[in-house]
Amino acid sequence: MADIKDASRRIVFTGASGGIGTMIRPLLAPLYPGLVLSDRVEPKNLLPGETFVAADLTKPDEVAAVVKGADSVIHLGGYSVEGPWDAILQANVIGCYNLFEAARQAGVKRVVFASSNHAVGFYPRRRKIGTDLTVRPDSRYGVSKAFGEALGALYSDKHGMVVTCLRIGNVGPRPLDVRRLSIWISPQDIVQLIRIGLEHPDIRFEIVYGASDNAASWWDNSRARQLGYRPTGKAEDHRAHAEAEQAKIGSDAVGDLFQGGAFCSAEFTNDVKRAGP
Ligand code: 15L
Question: What is the CATH number of the domain that holds 170?
Answer without folding.
Answer: 3.40.50.720
